[in-house]
Amino acid sequence: MMRQKNIIICSIFQIAFLIISTYTTKAQHLISYQFLDHYTKQDIQQLLADYGISASVITPEFAVDYYKVTYNTRNAQNTGNTIATGALVVPTGITCPLPLLSYQHGTTSKRIKVPSARGGAFEIGVIGAALTGSVTAMPDYLGLGDSPGFHPYVHAASEATAVIDLLRTARELKDSIGYNLNDQLFLFGYSQGGHATMSAFKELETNFSSEFTVTACVPMSGPYDISGVQSTTMTADTPYATPGYLPYVILGYQEAYGNLYNNLSEIFKSPYDTLLPDYFDGTHGIGWINNRLPDTPNLMLDSAYFQSFINDPNHFVWSLLKDNDLYNWAPQAPLSIYYCTGDEQVFYENALVARDSMHALGATHVIAVNFGQLNHNNCAPLCFLSGLALFDQYIDLSGGMIVHDSITNPSTASASNGSITISVSNGNSPYIYEWQGGLAGQTTATIQGLSEGNYEVRISDSIGCFLYEDITLTAPTSITDIEAYKYFKLMPNPADNFIYLKILAPLSDKIHISIIDMSGKVIYETKNALLALYRYDISELKNGVYLVRLQSQNKAYTQKLIINH
User: Fold this and answer.
1) What is the DSSP secondary structure assignment for residue 199, as one 8-state letter?
2) Quick check: 201 and 219 in contact, CB under 8 A?
3) How far, in Å, CA of 30 to CA of 41, rounded?
C-alpha cells in the first residue's frame, strides 16, 4: 500500500513537472494574472471629468478590463531572475489588432501604492486604454507591489527590464485574455515614470529593436540628468521640496549596486542612520517621510562623507549617478519631452539637457515642450492629456481599411443640396457607418441634403477595426478650408466658454495658432506651438463666427468657429 502511494505521488510530481515545463516554454515571463475590475464607458467618463474634461470634448471609445499581472524579470543586480507585478488594461468589445501602450508611474515609497493594487495614478492607464484603444501595461517596478527586496529607486537598468518584460508578458497573455496586437508601441510616464520611460525607450531602441519598434515616446518631468541638474540641486545648501528623494536614491542604489556603504552611519548622521530604514519600510508614503526630514536634504548626511563627495569629482558615487543619466544617445522614434518651469521637485533643466544632448548627437527631431510655470503636481494632468492626444496622431485601429469619399458640395453657402457617399476597401465586410454630431443616428453609406460644414463618420468592420473619417463640404465662395480638417479639430464647435484645439496629424515644423474675429483682429495667438492639444478660454468673446487658423511653414489652414454662449 505504501509503495502504491509513493508511485502515485511520484506520478503527480512528474505530471506537474511536465505541465510547468511546458508552460514555462510557452510563457517565459508570465507567472499569473488576475481579473480585478471592469470599467464602463460611464466610469471612464467620470475619470475624465475628474481631470476637467467633459463629454463634449472627449468621449471614451471603449470599456476596459483591469488585470493584475505577475511576471518574471531580472533582479536589480542583473545576476538572476526575480518576480515583478504590474497591471494590464484591455479594451473590450474589439478583436482588431491593438497597439501596446506602457505607462510608468511616479515616485512611491509605499508598496501598495502601485498599479497592480490600483494605485500610482492607475487611472491614467484606464483612460489611456479607453481613449486610444491600446492594451496598456503599467509596471509596479522592482521592490514594489509583490516584488521582493527594496525598490531600486531611479535605477535605469531595472526600470527598463521591468517595463520591457511586462510588455513581453502582455504579448504572452493575448490568447488567454483574448486580444490581438499590432506592431505599434507607445511609452509615457511622469516624474520617476519619466525616467523609467526614457530608460525603457533607450533600451528598446539600443538592444531590442528587432523585437519592439517604438512608435512614439513621451517622458514627462523626469530626472534624466541625475548626476548633474538633479543631484546638484538636491545636495545644495538650500531647502528642497521633497527631501525624501535623497535617501531614497542612496538606499535604492545600495540595493542595485551593493557598494555604497557597509553601515548607514557611514553616509547619514544620527538619528537618520537609524530612522531611515523604518521610514522606507514600504508602509509609509513619501509625503509622510518628507515631513520627518530636514528641508535641506544634505543636513541628513555625515559631514565628512558629504564633503568628500562634493569635492571629489572622481568619487565613485558620481559614477553610479552617471550610470543612470538618460540623455547621451540619439533616439530614432518621435520623442517629446514634457516639463514645467515651475516644477519644484524635478527641475525643468533635466528636459533641456536631454534635448540639447540628443540634438548634438544628431536626433534633431527631439522636442522639449514647456507647459508653463506649474508646480510638479499641477503639471501632471496637462502632460497626461497632451501625451494621449499626441499618441492619437499615430494610433492605428483600422486593420488596414481604406476609405473612399465621393462628395457633392452644396451650390451656395445657404443651400442644402450636398451629399456624401462612403465606400471601404481592405477591411472585413460588412461595414457599419455611424455618423457623428448633427447626423447622429444615421447609419447609411450615403447621406444627402447636406449644407456646408464638417461631417464625421465612424466606420467599423466585422472584427471591430474602426477609423474616423472627416469630410468637409464647402460652397464655391466659402472661407472654410477643406484641408484644415485633416490637420486640426475644434471641440466643441459650436462652443460656449472654452474650446479645445486638437492637432490631428504630426507636422514637420513648429506651428502658429490664431483665433481671429470677422474684422481680422487676432483674439488669441499661440506661436511655435508644439503640443497636440490646446485649450482656450473664450468665455468673454461675443457670440458669432470666428476663424481659427493653423499656420505651418508657408501653408495656412482655416476653420470656422461658432461661439454661442
Assistant:
1) H
2) yes
3) 29
C-alpha cell of residue 366: 527631439
pLDDT in tens, 229-273: 999 888 889 999 999 999 999 999 999 999 999 999 999 999 999
Q: Which residue, among 361, 342, 390, 391, has the nearest Cα to 529 in the 3D structure?
A: 390
Q: Does residue 466 contact residue 96 with C-beta atoms inside 8 Å?
A: yes
Is the CB of residue 545 less than 8 Å from the CB of residue 562? yes
Task: Name the residue among 163, 169, 228, 165 with its Cα closest to residue 197.
Answer: 163
* β-sheet bridge partners, residue 471: 455
What local confidence, expressed as pLDDT, does residue 480 receive?
57
pLDDT in tens, 279-309: 999 999 999 999 999 999 999 999 999 999 9
Q: Is 20 exposed, middle or buried (0-12, 13-18, 19+ CB in 10 A)?
A: exposed
User: Which has more pLDDT, 497 or 29?
Assistant: 29
Please name the residue that has the C-alpha cell 483600422: 398
For 376, the enclosing helix (H) or strand (E) is: helix 376-392
Domains of the chain, earliest start first: 29-222 (3.40.50.1820), 226-322 (1.10.260.160), 398-478 (2.60.40.1080), 481-565 (2.60.40.1930)
Closest to 189 measured CA to CA, from 256, 131, 140, 244: 140
Q: Could you tell me the pTM of the whole model?
A: 0.86
Distance CA(227)–CA(349), nearest Å, equals: 13
Which cell numbers hold the place of 296?
Answer: 535641506
140 to 91, 151, 158, 255: CA distances (angstroms): 20, 10, 11, 17
Kindly indicate the confidence band of residue 429, based on its pLDDT and cuts at 50, 70 and 90.
very high
Residue 13 has pLDDT above 70, yes or no: no
Cβ contacts of residue 303 below 8 Å, gap of 6+? Answer: 269
Cα–Cα distance for residue pair 419/442, rounded to 1 Å = 13
CA–CA separation, 473 and 459 (whole Å): 19
Question: Checking DSSP bridges between strand 98-104 and strand 181-190, what pairing results, if any?
Answer: parallel
Give the number of residues written for the chain: 565
Alpha-carbon Rg for the chain, nearest whole angstrom, is 27
- Cα separation, 481 vs 498, whole angstroms: 22
Point out which residues pair with 419 in neighbouring strands. Answer: 408, 448
